[in-house]
Amino acid sequence: MSTRDLIAGTAALCLAAACALPAHAQVQTHYGFGTAAAPADLAKYFAIAPDGSGLPPGSGTAAEGAKVYAENCSACHGSQLQGNPAKGIGGDKLIGGRGTLASANPVKTVESYWPYSTTLFDYVKRAMPFSSPGSLTDDQVYSVVAYVLSQAHIIKPAETMNARTLPRVKMPNRNGFIPDPRPELALYR
Amino acid sequence: MRRDPIVYDEKSQRMADEMVKAEAKLIARRDLEGQDCDCKDGMFPSRVATNRRAFLLAAGSAAGIAAGAMASGDAAAQQALPGAVHYDVPPDPTKVQGRPIGADGGYGTRSQFETEVRERFPTANAYTSWSFTPLQKMLGNVTASGLHYERDHNGIPTIDPGRHRLAVHGMVETPKIFTMADIKRFPSVTRRHFIECAGNGLTEWKKPTLKTVQGTHGLLSTSEWVGVPFATIAREVGLKDGATWVLAEGADAAVMTRSIPMDKMLTDAFLAYGQNGEAIRPEQGYPLRLMLPGYEGNLHIKWLRRLEVSDKPYMTREETSKYTDLLGNGIARQFTFIMDAKSVITFPSGNMKLPGAGFYNITGLAWSGRGRVQSVDVSVDAGKTWYPARIEVVAEPMCTVRFSFPWMWDGKPAVLQSRCMDETGYIQPTLQQLIAIRGDNGPFGSIYHLNAIQSWAVAVDGSVTNVHA
Questions:
Q1: Which residues pair with B407 in a beta bridge?
Q2: ipTM confidence
Q3: Residue of chain B whose Cα is closest to the Cα of A175
Q4: Which of B134, B320, B343, B375 could hold B366 in an S-S bridge, CB 3.0 to 4.6 Å?
Q5: Residue B239 DSSP symbol
Q6: One CATH from 3.30.70.270, 1.10.760.10, 1.10.340.30, 2.60.120.260 for A48-168
Q7: In B, which residues are within 8 Å of A130 by CB distance?
């Protein structure tokens, strides 16, 4: 049997098999499951990118943020933003640590490590305060973000944070990250 | 006594100390379980449930209730056995009737004699913490669902699957909302995969810190998962040109978000609702979890409620301030998704004791996030000579294999190691090799992605300890 015959024979078999397949055994590309999402269905979701897309209207300053922080954040993160490692709490230190990343004891904080100011807004709005996440208004989030950035000496105390100004804040460790260079070729042989 | 050059900050010091303490408690409990059995100094699983029960009751916070339960053997005692129910043991089970069928209410439990549990890492806050799989007790390749390791960032949510929705939107032709019933109507895939936390072994960079394999490697588990490929959902909604990333979001109190490259999503990502033959467990993401085979555990978003298709990563908290690997030069690697090849011997392992020279079946697990495990080598002389191990299962992509190696111990000191090679040719490195590349400038080094060869030292008296060799 030549190769051509073999192929022809196989094709004929496949054809026969296809004919024998019940009509309902078909691969779909669209199933029609799910319902089209209206804008209202998606309104409660958000994700804020470094370019500021997704930031809501509103604004805040460090002065207002100091009050928000005292009421909602200081119990876990400390009155001086120094963190609180106590049992049952364990809030991260938020400021300090600049210049330590290459040392024997790197201190990673919003000030020393976080590359984007928008991440702080996204995370606070999303997941803070820890015991009642998502409970702050957008103005409160802008305010407390302004307060943390101001205490970290990244913005001036009087600067207003809003959808226009926040993405422009240059974080100290903005250039501190590289893409994953793995696989580490030295480990192959 | 200033031999230890490691600089711990307050938080790191507390974490290391607390974990050592927690593990010591667990070991004490196991020792108590094994005290009057012939199980050879903890080498084999204990067979004495009465001690376990007595210990749990004695250690219980409600001491008064516990004392009463001890006398009467009532419901409190039964509840004290995680995953099991206590029954009195008859002198001869062939002379009395057993329990009637169906008396368990229709859902079985494990034997009261099997007492191994996950152990929580004692982070200060129990709502953001992790728990380790007891690898030293795991049999075969799949992890029991109730012992699958956990990492939760603000507790385990309770979600009614009837009300749960998945939104798929962003750069798509038709944004859609799916119910769980919708998702289950799509053609499904069934695949075995490991999930490993990127922080597995973080205490082990600088010095051997934890005693047991549960502590050093227990953020690794394997399940059979059932779900719908993301590619199927992508065809359903239609991807727009330029769609290169997907943001996945969970419905927990952390509203966990991670950005995932579209290439991965279309290659082998799937939305899992099944685990080991039943619905996925609540602590594993019930009712829906994103599976990203071979990627670090944090990306396998649990309680999945939203996929936003995009042309950029969102730089979320978890992919910037956490789960980035700080190198010795102060620069951090970002988007270090893949878990490199790794293996560990689970028997004999730390804190076990061999009863004497003779035959032992060394066994362990090997895995790679880059594909199938190709082979596993075992050394009993700290890596001077290597022998091929037997692979006990058919290797599957991004899945563990169980390996074993017959060892005749001559009673002299030995150092046991295993080394995994994956199908890409990657060879599991030594700790020194990893540190030479990445540096080790923090109390926990670069924290994440420690996949170095593990060493267990066997002393003349048979005791097994965690060492850096």
A1: B360
A2: 0.88
A3: B331
A4: B343
A5: B
A6: 1.10.760.10
A7: 125, 127-128, 154
